[in-house]
């Protein structure tokens, strides 16, 4: 194992064990290096690596701290990687969406309260009567993000949000080329909303599956 990797593992062990809690400040570099049996250079490399993936926060003149370790923050690194996808892998992103989003939608139907449901309805009503493709896609993204948030699972929500980027172009492409796509999207969004508002998880799951699978099926044909 590389020295830097070993240093990363030792810091990780301190966090996992609870010795370093979210928001905690790391000991001084010299003290920590001696305690872990590392060179100061190895420790610095480990800190840089962990800072890149938002595990540590290096504050100049103040010290190095463990971040909040919230899923959204840690999954930013995944979003960065996802941005490098190739067009021929976009179907794989839709396959993952088809696995995750129906579950999130079912959870939202069970968990969302009256105020949450009102917010979801407001998103649908904010769409103009004859929206252009950009307005439709922006509304679509907001609608799905609000449902993911309504699932009550922050990890699931962050994963779904990280998958939004690679599928945006396909959504726009479909709206521009498939006849009736705009109307179909709005009808399915309404069906999903009604299932959530009625607290019907199974129905909500089914409509979410139909909704995502429809775009995936169109993309397969188009490609």
UniProtKB/TrEMBL annotation:
Q: PROSITE patterns this protein is in?
A: HTH_GNTR
The record's section on Pfam families has: FCD, GntR
Q: Which UniProt keywords apply?
A: DNA-binding, Transcription, Transcription regulation
What SMART domains has UniProt attached to this entry?
FCD (SM00895), HTH_GNTR (SM00345)
Top-rank taxon of the source lineage equals: Bacteria
Ranges for domain HTH gntR-type? 1-69
Name by which UniProt lists this protein = FadR/GntR family transcriptional regulator
């Amino acid at each position: 194992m590389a020295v830097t990797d070993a240093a990363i593992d030792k810091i990780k062990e301190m966090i996992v064990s609870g010795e370093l809690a979210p928001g905690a400040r790391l000991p001084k570099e010299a003290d920590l290096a001696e305690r872990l049996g590392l060179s100061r250079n190895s420790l610095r490399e480990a800190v840089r690596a962990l800072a890149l993936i938002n595990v540590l926060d290096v504050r100049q003149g103040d010290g190095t701290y463990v971040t909040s370790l919230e899923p959204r923050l840690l999954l930013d690194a995944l979003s960065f990687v996802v941005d490098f996808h190739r067009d021929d892998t976009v179907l794989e992103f839709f396959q993952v969406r088809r696995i995750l989003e129906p579950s999130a939608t079912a959870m939202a139907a069970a968990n969302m309260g009256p105020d949450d449901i009102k917010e979801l309805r407001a998103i649908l009503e904010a769409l103009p009567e004859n929206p252009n493709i950009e307005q439709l896609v922006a509304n679509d993204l907001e609608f799905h993000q609000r449902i993911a948030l309504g699932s009550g699972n922050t990890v699931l929500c962050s994963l779904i949000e990280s998958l939004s980027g690679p599928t945006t172009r396909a959504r726009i492409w479909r709206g521009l080329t498939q006849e009736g796509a705009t109307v179909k999207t709005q009808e399915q969004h309404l069906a999903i909303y009604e299932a959530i508002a009625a607290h019907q998880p199974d129905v909500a799951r089914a409509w979410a599956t139909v909704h995502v699978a429809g775009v995936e099926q169109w993309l397969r044909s188009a490609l």
